[in-house]
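Below sits the subject:

***
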Amino acid sequence: MSTPTDPALAFPFLGGRPCLDFVATLGKRHATPVERIPDPAALARWITEAGLAAEDGPVPVAVRDLAEARALREAVYRVLRAAMAGREPDEADVALVNEVAARPDLAPQLGAPRWTARHPARAALATVARDAVLLVGGPLLERVKECGNPDCSLLFLDDSQARRRRWCSMERCGNLAKVAGYRSRNRAADTR
């Protein structure tokens, strides 16, 4: 499985939960969206890189699985955003997440492979949907935040001790904000 040549299409695994990492397969939601799973091969690559592959080698992904994955991703995103804002999520989104979560998910195994499943791609999506259900219905929801970079839309679980994390990661957006702040202060000082 090859990695994309465009760095924007690389999967950011910064969310701290499978469902948050899955939502990040659509990047820059507030600007020009970046679709990181444009085809079945990219979804198979995400499943493998996320550690949700039920077998060695490429995960078989059908076009139908891709369409379902994208629909699930957007429903999970909307449910999470509604829950984060203290609003009731759309019933259709809840129904879709619950439907996928009710399917057989990945079964953990001792030894290799780590998971087993009759339908690996569908089981990986069911695992993601269950993770979303557990996150939205559990105590960790209050720790889910959106990156403070206005060009970034990644959601992440704030696992910092003080619960004041602002960026999806310091290496990614935090450093960009620091550099921009530094340049802005220098420009302001130069104009005095």
